[in-house]
């Protein structure tokens, strides 16, 4: 035993053993460490290793700035905290989802918001928050396999889509529906730019410093989350210049498809509407690129290389900000006064307005925020109203609730005077939500007594400026103003009221945009887009035409008897006869302009017609001067504008046929069925076409003379043959027509117009248009009809056809041989009777031709049904006073008045004063004036027209004398009224100073029945600002700051 112990001790004391044991221990330690590194701590060290991995990061370029003509900033870029996700930081989807939820929770905790463009409620049960268009657009931004799959997604409920996205984004089942909904919002933002892994994805903007600080302090807990500062667009005058300057936001899918070839990405910020859109190529900068090293959480640790971004060019407008502000504020003030006047009922010419009408209009104009109402705290009026409203709503039938919202129910109950909700209830709610500002005394009084009307409260709110016309759509609550430098064509001010808020559109688009879709038409710049009849402001053009063509002189006296009886019935009347039962008596040109005598201009236009000759000599002469003054074209301004429409026979046919062609291209099945039924009903009464007159050829004469016998015998054959196929043939014709119009509608329209206007034989414009339309229809569907009709006709017994023709020819032959035995008609009839059996194919083709003629004729009648397609002397004389189909926008009227004022040139209008080229270091380049047309009008003609316009503002009977007679600067002007349905729009156009014009001003107040004076007041305010009236010193400007 002792020997064994000693032997063992000897082994353990041996140096070789000790060395071997040490190696074994070391191996075990190394193996353990290797296991820890490779298995236990693999992810940690793998991520640390990536600190040396390079990243390519796109650097956004600052957008160019926008200034007014004096260098005052209008659109600038402000620093904005953003949170982005680095797609290149690798992690499991489950970890990404957890991080995103943590980010959202942090944002919400600190009162920040995150990007959420999903049109689904945030809480279950999930419902869509937008209509079909918004939902359809959303489906393009989420994962789908193909178009068929996308269509299937469109059929899903909101809850089913959320469930689908939970699966696609691998969202853990432990997350609640509400948490998953938050993650889905951010995952969708990431998915939108998944095509480009080098791009970081913004998930929150305008983030507080508190949130940024937390993320930076706890960066290890938020791998892939990047905090940064970017430039966000900010507008210094967001409403005054809203629909002029536009706004910026993420590029839409449609824009991206148009612009991707120019280097745009799907998440780029671009200009929408206004100057921001039209000057996008100038304002857009050139992106830069950085190569950086990042650590394990995606933070940059080292910049390897940087290609600097280049800012966009700065754009200078011709707009004078001070003048623009005055124009906008005066428009708002005068509209408020007009509404107050109607609430007071002090203007007998204007329709009165009730407080209830104003309140209901506010409800229909997004002034009540239902989300605020829903979340109102107990004890508030909002809470009380919401509880009562939802009590009523929840008791409604389920079918009714599908088509009626709680807000609509509230409006309905208020309109019906049920007493459940009162005007005072609504004003108290508006006050709590900040739409108006009631004093505490008024609030207390309303709470004490909820009944009664509220006119005087609303009047008080208007007069204090706490309630504005842009919060409703009562009339008049919209207007336009344009101010132009007559010597250059520069637009100094342009107001389309109401306007949207550009800052809200840029930073809060989804919420704000949805509040603009109501009768206020906030997105529509009326100064550029709303075309109305010019009314009497057109009379200066008629005066110029009359003087230049020599049908009147300045001293020509025309006796106004009240009713003009030379141009047919209904006889047009002078406005004074309609109002007072008598005419103006003898008037010359100056007096005719001063008192706006319609009769004088009727006679003038009639004389133009006598000189020019039939059928369109008068209107052609008048149109010559309309075109000379630029009213037939857009103005050239660097903004989107509606095209003008001058009242001519050409445009009358063009507009109405074009509208019908457009409708046919978009025909749905129900409308097509209706058209087919209407044509079948007509053709069942008679297919065989009756000709109104004989042609010159023998064939045409025989066809005309034999038509009644042929109709009597062939009509039953037609009806029997097409009894089952008539609807199919008509349907095929319409579908073939749709195909033809999809690709060539403009070509067919031009053919119709050319043929109509060159037809000198036919007097009736409708008949000319129908004839040319029939030719066009034959070109569109003729070959298709030949195939369809011949199939049916080939089934008819040929001897039925031949018997009908033989009977008709025999009857005609016997009649004609007695009257003209040697005529060519008799000879041809004899020949046809002898060869009848040999000409079977000829008679089949003749039947085909007659059926096709009948069908095309009926389709043409259907297309023209209800259209107003006649042009008479009455139309011409009415056009001369600015009625007819004349329609011009305020900007187009502004160019006309500016040209009239300078007397020499029609300028292409411009709103871009110049560009400061930062992208090319070219410096500031001014935009030069551009002449559209030179006026060739005698000085004496202009002088006579000017005198009449001066009398409008200074004469004893001038319609604007009360506003301008004592004004410090002499003004020449003209008022006008455009009637539309039961209302009217009021124009005032003018220029100043009278002797040496500098600016032209056009104002339009829409739906201003009996309240046209307010437009004149707006003009006076603008002129006072421009001429610095009542001010101590002119303003200091920075004009031409970039010009050497």
TrEMBL record:
Keywords: Antibiotic resistance, Hydrolase, Membrane, Signal, Transmembrane, Transmembrane helix. GO terms for cellular component: plasma membrane. GO terms for biological process: cell wall organization; response to antibiotic. It is found in: Membrane. The chain crosses the membrane at residues 16-35. This is beta-lactamase. It catalyses: a beta-lactam + H2O = a substituted beta-amino acid. It holds the Pfam family PBP_dimer. Residues 59-304 form the Penicillin-binding protein dimerisation domain. Its EC number is 3.5.2.6. It comes from the Bacteria. It comes from Holtiella tumoricola. GO terms for molecular function: beta-lactamase activity; penicillin binding. Belongs to the transpeptidase family. Its main location: membrane. Residues 480-657, 865-1023 form the Penicillin-binding protein transpeptidase domain.
């Amino acid at each position: 035993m002792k020997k064994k112990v000693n032997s063992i001790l000897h082994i353990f004391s041996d140096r070789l053993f000790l060395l071997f044991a040490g190696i074994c221990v070391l191996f075990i330690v190394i193996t353990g460490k290797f296991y820890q590194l490779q298995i236990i701590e693999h992810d940690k060290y793998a991520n640390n290793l990536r600190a040396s991995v390079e990243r390519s990061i796109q650097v956004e370029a600052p957008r160019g700035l926008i200034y007014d003509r004096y260098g005052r900033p209008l659109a600038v870029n402000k620093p904005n905290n953003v949170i982005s996700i680095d797609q290149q930081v690798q992690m499991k989807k489950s970890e990404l989802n957890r991080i995103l939820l943590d980010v959202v929770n942090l944002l919400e905790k600190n009162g920040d918001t995150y990007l959420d463009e999903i049109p689904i409620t945030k809480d279950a049960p999930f419902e869509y928050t937008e209509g079909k268009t918004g939902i359809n657009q959303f489906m393009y931004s989420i994962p789908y396999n193909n178009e068929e799959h996308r269509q299937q997604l469109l059929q899903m409920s909101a809850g089913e889509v959320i469930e689908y996205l939970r699966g696609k984004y691998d969202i853990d089942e432990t997350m609640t529906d509400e948490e998953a909904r938050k993650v889905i919002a951010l995952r969708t933002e990431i998915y939108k730019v998944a095509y480009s892994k080098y791009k970081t994805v913004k998930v929150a903007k305008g983030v507080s410093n508190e949130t940024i600080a937390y993320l930076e302090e706890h960066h290890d807990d938020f791998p892939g989350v990047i905090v940064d500062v970017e430039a966000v667009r900010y507008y210094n005058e967001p409403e005054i210049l809203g629909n002029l300057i536009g706004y910026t936001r993420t590029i839409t899918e449609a824009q991206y498809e148009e612009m991707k070839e120019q280097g745009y990405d799907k998440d780029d910020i671009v200009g929408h509407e206004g100057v921001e859109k039209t000057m996008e190529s100038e304002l857009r900068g050139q992106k830069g690129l950085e190569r950086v090293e990042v650590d394990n959480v995606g933070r940059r640790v080292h910049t390897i290389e940087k290609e600097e971004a280049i800012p966009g060019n700065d754009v200078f407008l011709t707009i004078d900000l001070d003048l623009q502000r005055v124009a906008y504020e005066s428009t708002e003030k005068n509209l408020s006064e007009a509404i107050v006047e109607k609430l007071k009922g002090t203007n007998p010419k204007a329709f009165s307005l009730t407080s209830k009408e104003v309140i209901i209009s506010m409800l229909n104009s997004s002034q009540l925020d239902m989300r605020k109402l829903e979340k109102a705290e107990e004890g508030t009026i909002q809470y009380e109203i919401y509880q009562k409203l939802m009590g009523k709503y929840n008791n409604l039938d389920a079918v009714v609730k599908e088509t009626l919202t709680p807000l609509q129910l509230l409006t309905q109950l208020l309109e019906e005077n049920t007493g459940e909700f009162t005007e005072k209830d609504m004003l108290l709610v508006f006050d709590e939500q900040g739409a108006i500002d009631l004093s505490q005394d008024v609030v207390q009084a309303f709470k004490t007594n909820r009944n009664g009307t509220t006119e005087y409260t609303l009047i008080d709110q208007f007069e204090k400026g706490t309630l504005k016309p842009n919060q409703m759509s009562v009339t008049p609550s919209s207007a336009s103003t344009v101010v132009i430098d007559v010597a250059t064509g520069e637009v100094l001010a342009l107001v389309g009221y109401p306007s949207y808020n550009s800052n809200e559109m840029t930073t809060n688009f989804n919420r704000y945009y949805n509040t603009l879709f109501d009768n206020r038409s906030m997105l529509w710049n009326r100064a550029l887009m709303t075309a109305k009849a010019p009314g009497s402001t057109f009379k200066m053009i008629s005066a110029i035409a009359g003087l230049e063509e020599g049908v009147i002189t300045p001293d020509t006296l025309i006796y106004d008897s009240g009713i003009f009886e030379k141009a047919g019935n209904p006889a047009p009347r002078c406005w004074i006869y309609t109002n007072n039962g008598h005419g103006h008596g003898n008037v010359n040109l100056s007096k005719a302009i001063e008192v706006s005598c319609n009769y004088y201009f009727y006679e003038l236009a009639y004389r133009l017609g006598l000189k020019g000759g039939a059928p369109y000599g008068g209107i052609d002469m008048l149109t010559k001067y309309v075109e000379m003054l630029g009213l037939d074209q857009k103005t050239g301004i660097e903004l989107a504008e509606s095209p003008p429409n001058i009242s001519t026979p050409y445009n009358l046919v063009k507009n109405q046929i074009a509208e019908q062609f457009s409708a046919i291209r978009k025909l749905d099945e129900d409308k097509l069925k209706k058209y087919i039924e209407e044509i079948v009903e007509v053709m069942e009464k008679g297919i065989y076409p009756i000709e109104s007159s004989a042609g010159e050829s023998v064939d045409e004469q025989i066809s005309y003379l034999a038509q009644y016998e042929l109709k009597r015998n062939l009509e039953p054959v037609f009806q029997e043959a097409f009894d089952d196929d008539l609807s199919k043939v008509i349907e095929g014709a319409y579908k073939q027509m749709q195909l033809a119009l999809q690709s060539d509608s403009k070509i067919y329209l031009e053919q119709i117009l050319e043929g109509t206007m060159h037809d000198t034989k036919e007097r009736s414009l409708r008949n000319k248009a129908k004839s040319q339309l029939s030719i066009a229809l034959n070109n569109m569907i003729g070959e298709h009809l030949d195939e369809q009709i011949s199939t049916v006709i080939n089934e008819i017994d040929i001897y039925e056809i031949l018997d009908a023709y033989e009977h008709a020819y025999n009857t005609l032959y016997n009649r004609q041989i007695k009257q003209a035995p040697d005529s060519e008609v008799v000879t041809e009839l004899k020949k046809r009777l002898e060869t009848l059996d040999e000409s079977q194919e000829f008679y089949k083709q003749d039947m085909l031709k007659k059926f096709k003629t009948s069908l095309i004729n009926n389709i043409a009648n259907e297309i023209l049904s209800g259209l107003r397609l006649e042009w008479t002397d009455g139309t011409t004389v009415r056009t001369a006073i600015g009625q007819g189909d004349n329609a011009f926008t305020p900007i187009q009227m502004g160019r006309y008045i500016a040209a009239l004022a300078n007397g020499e040139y029609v300028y292409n209008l411009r709103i871009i004063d110049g560009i400061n080229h930062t992208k090319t270091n070219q410096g500031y380049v001014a935009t030069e004036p551009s002449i559209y047309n030179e006026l060739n009008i005698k000085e004496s003609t202009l002088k006579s027209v000017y005198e009449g316009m001066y009398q409008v503002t200074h004469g004893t009977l001038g319609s604007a004398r009360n506003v301008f007679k004592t004004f410090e600067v002499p003004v020449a002007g003209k008022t006008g009224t455009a009637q539309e349905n039961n209302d009217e729009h009021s124009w005032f156009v003018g220029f100043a100073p009278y002797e040496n014009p500098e600016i032209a001003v056009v104002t339009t107040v829409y739906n201003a029945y009996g309240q046209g004076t307010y437009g004149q007041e707006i003009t006076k305010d603008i002129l006072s600002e421009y001429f610095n009236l009542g001010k101590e010193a002119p303003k200091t400007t920075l004009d031409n700051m970039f010009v050497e």
